[in-house]
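User: Sequence recovery, please. Input:
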C-alpha cells in the first residue's frame, strides 16, 4: 500500500501540470484573440447626425469586441453596422480582423471583396473572393463574383472556369450564362455569345441583363427587327443585380432611409417583396415625413393587392408631398382597382389640380373621357399627355383608339406609326395596324404587320392565332 501512494501523487501532479498547460494555452489564445479584436476596432466616426440607436449599437459592439471570448461577435456586429451604413473603410478594418479570428469562415473575405470590387480595387478583391470560394464552394454568388472580377482583370479562361462551375450545380443560372456570354465576346466568339444569351432568355424571359446584351448581339448579326423588338420588350424595366444574401441581408442593420429604399427596390425587382416591405417600413420609421418612401411602399402593396395598406401609404404620401404626381397616379389606379369610381375621380381631379404637368394623370383622364364617349375632350387630354411624355408609345396608341372610334382612320394610322417610332415592335401598335390593314383589304400591309408581330418574343400565341384567323377569313389563306 505504501508503495502505491507516491505513484498516485505523481499521476495527480502530472495531471495538474497538463491542466495548467491547457489553461495557460487557452489563456494565451484568449489574449491573442483579444489583441486582434482590439486592434481591429476602428476609430469611431462622427455619428451625431445619425439615429441615436445606431451610435448605441456601435458603442455596444466596441465594448464586446474589446472584451474576451465575445470579441468576434462584437467585431461582427461592428462590421455589419459599418458596412450597411456606408462606412466602408471601417467595415474593411473589422472584416480583416474577423478573418484572422475565424479563418474558416467564408463570409468575411467575401464581404471584404464585395466592398473592394465596388470601389474598383479588383486586384485586391480577386484573392479575397478566391478565399471565400475555397471555404464555401457551394455559395454561388461568391463564385459568380469571382468570375466577374477575373474577367475584368483579363483572366478570361479562369473566369470561364468559375462560371462553368456554377452551371455544373445550377445548369440554367442566368448570371453564369451572362458571364459566359461576356467571356465569349472578349475572344470575339459572337456565335457562342448568342447561344449563351438565347439560352438564358429562353429560361428566364424577364432577365433584363441578358435581354440588353442580346440586343447588341442581334445588331451585330444584322437582325435589326429582332433587336428593336427586344428594346420594346425591355422598355423601362431595370436590370436586377445578382442576389447575394450575405450582402443583401446587411440592410436589416441599415439606419440610412435612402440606402434602405435602394435595397428595397433591388429586393422587389428580384421578387423578394417580404424584404422590400420590411426595409421600406424601416425607412419610413426613420424618416416619417418623407413621401417618397411611402409612395414606394404603397406601390408594392398595390401590386400585392393589399389595397387598404396601400391606400394608407399613398394618401399619406400625397398629404406630405402634394406635388408628387406619381403618388397621385398610383392612388387613382388604386381606387380603380377597388372599383371605387367616386374616390378615383376625386383623386384624379385633385392630382391634376396639384400636378398640371403630369403626363400620367392627363393620360388617365383622357382614357376615362374616351370610355365615357366624350371623344373631343379625350383627344385634348391625350394630346397633352403625349406632349408631356413624347417617348411613351401608350399615349399614341390611346389616341389612335379614339380616332378609330371617330372613324378618323388616317389619323389613327399616323398615331400607331408614331408609337412604333418611339417604341419599335410595340405589340399593341402592330396588332392594331394589322387589323386595320385586314379590314381595309390591304393584304400586303396586313402581312407586313403580322410578320413583325410574329417576331415579337412575348406576343401570346393565342393573339397571333386570332389575327391569323381574321386574315384567313378576309383573304382566304394564311398570312405565313
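Assistant: Recovered sequence (480 residues):
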Amino acid at each position: 500500500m505504501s508503495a502505491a501512494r507516491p505513484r498516485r501523487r505523481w499521476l495527480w501532479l502530472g495531471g495538474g501540470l497538463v491542466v495548467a498547460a491547457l489553461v495557460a494555452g487557452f489563456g494565451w489564445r484568449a489574449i491573442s484573440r483579444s489583441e486582434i479584436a482590439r486592434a481591429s476596432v476602428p476609430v469611431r466616426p462622427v455619428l451625431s447626425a445619425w439615429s441615436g440607436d445606431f451610435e448605441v449599437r456601435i458603442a455596444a459592439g466596441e465594448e464586446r469586441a474589446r472584451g474576451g471570448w465575445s470579441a468576434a461577435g462584437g467585431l461582427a456586429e461592428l462590421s455589419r453596422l459599418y458596412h450597411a451604413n456606408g462606412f466602408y473603410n471601417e467595415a474593411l478594418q473589422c472584416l480583416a480582423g474577423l478573418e484572422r479570428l475565424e479563418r474558416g469562415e467564408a463570409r468575411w473575405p467575401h464581404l471584404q471583396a464585395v466592398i473592394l470590387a465596388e470601389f474598383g480595387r479588383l486586384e485586391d478583391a480577386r484573392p479575397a473572393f478566391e478565399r471565400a470560394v475555397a471555404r464555401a464552394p457551394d455559395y454561388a454568388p461568391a463564385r459568380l463574383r469571382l468570375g466577374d472580377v477575373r474577367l475584368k482583370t483579363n483572366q478570361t479562361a479562369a473566369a470561364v472556369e468559375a462560371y462553368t462551375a456554377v452551371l455544373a450545380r445550377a445548369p440554367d443560372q442566368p448570371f453564369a450564362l451572362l458571364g459566359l456570354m461576356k467571356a465569349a465576346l472578349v475572344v470575339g466568339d459572337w456565335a457562342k455569345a448568342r447561344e449563351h444569351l438565347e439560352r438564358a432568355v429562353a429560361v428566364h424571359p424577364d432577365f433584363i441583363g441578358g435581354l440588353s446584351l442580346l440586343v447588341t448581339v442581334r445588331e451585330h448579326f444584322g437582325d435589326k427587327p429582332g433587336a428593336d423588338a427586344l428594346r420594346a420588350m425591355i422598355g423601362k424595366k431595370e436590370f436586377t443585380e445578382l442576389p447575394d444574401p450575405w450582402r443583401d441581408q446587411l440592410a436589416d442593420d441599415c439606419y440610412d432611409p435612402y440606402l434602405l429604399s435602394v435595397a428595397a427596390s433591388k429586393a422587389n425587382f428580384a421578387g423578394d417583396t417580404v424584404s422590400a416591405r420590411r426595409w421600406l417600413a424601416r425607412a419610413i420609421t426613420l424618416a416619417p415625413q418623407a413621401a417618397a418612401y411611402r409612395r414606394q411602399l404603397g406601390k408594392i402593396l398595390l401590386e400585392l393587392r393589399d389595397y387598404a395598406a396601400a391606400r394608407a401609404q399613398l394618401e399619406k404620401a400625397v398629404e406630405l408631398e402634394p406635388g408628387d404626381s406619381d403618388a397621385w397616379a398610383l392612388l387613382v389606379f388604386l381606387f380603380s382597382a377597388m372599383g371605387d369610381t367616386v374616390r378615383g375621380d376625386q383623386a384624379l381631379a385633385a392630382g391634376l389640380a396639384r400636378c398640371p404637368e403630369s403626363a400620367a394623370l392627363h393620360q388617365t383622364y383622357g382614357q376615362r373621357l374616351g370610355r365615357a364617349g366624350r371623344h373631343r375632350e379625350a383627344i385634348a387630354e391625350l394630346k397633352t399627355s403625349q406632349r408631356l411624355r413624347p417617348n411613351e408609345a401608350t399615349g399614341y396608341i390611346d389616341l389612335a383608339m379614339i380616332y378609330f372610334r371617330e372613324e378618323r382612320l388616317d389619323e389613327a394610322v399616323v398615331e400607331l406609326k408614331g408609337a412604333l417610332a418611339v417604341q419599335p415592335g410595340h405589340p399593341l401598335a402592330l396588332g392594331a395596324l394589322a387589323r386595320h390593314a385586314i379590314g381595309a383589304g390591304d393584304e400586303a400591309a396586313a402581312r407586313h404587320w403580322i410578320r413583325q408581330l410574329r417576331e415579337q418574343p412575348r406576343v401570346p400565341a393565342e393573339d397571333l392565332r386570332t389575327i391569323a384567323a381574321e386574315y384567313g377569313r378576309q383573304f382566304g389563306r394564311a398570312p405565313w
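The chain has a mean pLDDT of 89.
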